[in-house]
Specification:
The chain has 483 residues and is an alpha+beta fold. Helices cover 41% and strands 20% of the residues.
Length: 483
């Protein structure tokens, strides 16, 4: 049965488009001075404007516009010289005005693309638009009661709408990871899905392979983790294929993802644009941005993830996998570059950051800046390894002590007695003692049992408390055994 299902799936192609909502990292909301902050008590960050009291008027937040333009430029969009806010009417308890101020016919950012790598293939996912809008509040259902927290009402958003260019759950995940990186690198958004400031709606349809016409789509709302996006797409594609194979018809609906049962459930029939009765927002003039403003934002953009990855591969000799890991978060890339600056080999820094540094960050749950020593001290520790002053294992011991104490690398190495012995006379003496103790094995080695060399190296290292310079141990021991 499983093989039949797999064969049926091979006959179809998924067509996927994503609508990603990201909170902009402003200090205040989009149209009022209330704080834009996560974690406040219920209804603490509210005022007459974001609560839609009679007679109040919105005033546009300039910082939010600049952050939206940053993201548009990073995603290769054309920035409209003039865009218009619109009223999008719908009625939910968490929408105090009964409409949402958004953009419709004339968005701020048009076109563009995001380049991804998935399944060993690099390709571009085109964008339709990036537009600005305000968020709604949050419904809370517990103990048989429904409550509304309006702290989020009026928080500035960008909605990033892709073309239906995505063909698999893996591509959708790669696209989301790249979008998240762009949002963070530009400073446009903190893009923390676990805090709800990055959310995703997924449009999924299937069609027979080779057919150009799109199938009927299902929209899956408010997914708040990349893992859920992958699972929801996989489930929905399989569900639609099963319906079509049974001779049924796909209904255009909005679904919700149930993470417990790992399935999508219908929520309502899909709305269309005319259901929202869009019209220009009468209380806001057209948004006009000058070429000079756009250019000043463009020149201030940092090196973006794709360019940084290419530099790491071409200039530093890292693999594409290493470059991808080190550039996913801007602060990790910055840390790696600072560590590598004082070393002869960038690979040394890359391996250390990917293993030791990120392991500590993940285990502690702390931000990188608070979890591990400064890049300068980590670089100093690795420079000791490169110079043969300490072993790699000793460096790992020292690094953990540095994380816990905050002391400099040189101090920790001295206090723990981790300095590597590079005295050739002392190493030669230890080698002589081991050889004298194991004359029978020496004879076997000289008779052709080359694998015994590892035994002698281990014995010398143990005799010297693990502190001997392994390169010198190998050189001196081999010279003595081959005499």
């Amino acid at each position: 049965m499983a093989s039949e299902t797999a064969m049926a799936a091979e006959n179809y192609e998924a067509v996927i488009g994503l609508e990603v909502h990201a909170h902009l990292a402003t200090q205040s909301k989009l149209f009022c001075g209330c704080a834009n902050s996560f974690g406040a008590g219920p209804n603490e960050n509210v005022c007459p404007v974001c609560m839609a009291m009679p007679g109040v008027l919105p005033v546009l937040n300039r910082d939010a516009v600049e952050l939206a333009i940053r993201m548009g430029l990073a995603a290769h969009c054309a920035i409209a010289r003039e865009s218009i806010f619109a009223r999008k009417s719908y009625f939910y308890p968490d929408l105090p005005k009964g409409y949402q101020i958004s953009m419709y016919e004339r968005p701020l950012c048009v076109g563009g693309y995001v380049e991804i790598e998935a399944n060993g293939e690099r390709r571009r996912i085109r964008l339709v638009r990036i537009h600005m809008e305000e968020d709604a509040g949050k419904n809370i259902h517990e103990d048989g009661t429904s409550l509304v927290d309006f702290n989020r009402s009026g928080v500035p958003l960008v909605e990033i709408v892709s073309e239906p260019d995505i063909r698999s759950a893996a591509e959708a995940a790669a696209y989301l990871r790249e979008l998240r990186a762009l949002l963070r690198y530009t400073g446009a958004s903190e893009a923390r899905m676990e805090e709800g400031n990055l959310r995703c709606d997924v449009n999924v349809s299937v069609r027979p392979r080779g057919v150009e016409q799109f199938g009927t789509k299902t929209e899956i709302k408010n997914l708040n983790s990349i893992r859920f996006v992958e699972k929801a797409i996989a489930h929905e594609v399989a569900r639609q294929i099963d319906i079509l194979e049974a001779g049924g018809r796909i209904m255009q609906e909005t679904h919700l993802w149930d993470p417990v049962r790992e399935e999508t459930r219908p929520m309502r029939s899909k709305e269309f644009a005319n259901d929202y009765r869009y019209f220009p927002e009468p209380d806001l003039p057209p948004l006009r941005v000058t070429p000079e403003w756009i250019e000043s934002i463009r020149v201030a953009l940092p090196e973006l993830p794709a360019a940084r990855r290419e530099r790491y591969v071409n200039a530093l000799g890292l693999s594409r996998y290493e470059a991808a890991i080190l550039t996913e978060e801007r602060e990790v890339g910055d840390y790696f570059e600072s560590v590598a600056a004082g070393l002869r080999n960038a690979k040394t820094a890359a391996n250390w950051v990917m293993t030791e540094v990120l392991r500590v960050v993940n285990e502690t749950g702390k931000p990188l800046a608070h979890a591990v020593p400064s890049a300068r001290e980590t670089g100093a520790l690795l420079a000791m390894v490169e110079d043969g002053a300490i072993s790699l294992n000793a460096a790992k011991t020292a690094f953990m002590a540095m994380c816990q104490s905050g002391k400099p690398a040189a101090t920790i190495v001295r206090e723990l007695g981790l300095a590597q012995v590079s005295d050739e006379a002392a190493i030669a003496e230890a080698c002589d003692q081991i050889i004298e103790t194991h004359l029978r094995k020496v004879g076997e080695y000289r008779a052709g049992r080359d694998k015994l060399f590892g035994f002698f190296v281990g014995a010398v290292m143990k005799a010297m408390g693990g502190r001997a310079n392994p390169r010198l141990v190998n050189e001196i021991l081999k010279r003595k055994l081959d005499q």
